[in-house]
Amino acid sequence: MSDIVTFILREKEDAILNSEYLKEKNILSKAFPIITTEYYHFNFKRTKFNYLVLTSPKSIKALIKLEKTNKYNLSKEINIFVIGLETSEKLYRIGYKNIFQASGNSDILLKLIIEQTFSNDLGLWIAAKDRSFDLKNMLKVNDRKIEIYEAYKTLPILILNQSIKNDLVRNESYNFLILSSRNALIAKTLLEHNNLFETVSNKANLIVNSKNVAQKAKQMGWSKIKIIKKNFTKDVLDHIVSITK
Asked: Could you tell me the CA-to-CA distances from 51 to 78, 80, 104, 151 in Å, in that order?
């Protein structure tokens, strides 16, 4: 087993699951949660929707809760528009069949929805409260209608765990798995609040999954960055296993 610790800097539940996966593969790993997710109830009066939009795997948990209420038109045949392979794959695994996947950006998602729906259709976007683009108005301009279910909000963790802090100071080198530019910024802010960013940025090998995240992380001041170009988190983790042993 390598003596280099791989810290997983993700949402709390994801960080724990990913860290446990690496440990099962005999990789020294530790969950480093930097975000928590808070979910909200759905209280729409409408009970029928012609299609769904999911722009994050986190939306699936909210979708499953909607299914269990049996109040809404959510058959496994409903059209679902998503961004990303991971969201698509998870939906297939729970039985949804008509999934239209946009590869990575909102422009492709918008085009897909316009091509595959009619002006009298009503969609439901299961979204984050802190979302980054205004899909509803983008669709309105193109004569499409969608309601928004603000299902969850991601909140940065503001207190650095003492055990993790000790590891960061004591260890000479470690890996940081960070899969979004937002998480890179949250991690930097948390470390700065503890007067540790300069120290950690010189020690940490930042592992990211895209050139875009790498470029933004570099602009933030992260110095050592490695790109693993994989679409699925599991594939990123498996690559870490292959290069760490």
From this structure: 6, 6, 20, 17
201, amino acid identity: S
**Residue 64 CB burial class (10 angstroms; 0-12, 13-18, ≥19):** exposed
Do 50 and 145 belong together in one domain? Answer: yes
Q: Which residues on adjacent β-strands are paired with residue 154?
A: 37
φ/ψ of 91, rounded to 5, equals: -65, -40
Domain C-terminal end among 135, 154, 173: 154
C-alpha angle 122/127/128, rounded to 5°?
A: 155
Same domain for 89 and 166, yes or no, is no
Main-chain phi, psi angles of 215, to 5 degrees:
-65, -45
Task: Provide block-wise average pLDDT over 10 residues at a time, the chain (245 residues).
Answer: 87 94 96 95 81 93 87 85 89 94 84 96 93 89 94 93 96 96 96 96 95 95 94 89 83
Give the C-alpha separation, 160 to 173, whole Å: 19
Range of the domain at 54: 38-154
CATH code of residue 56: 3.40.50.10090
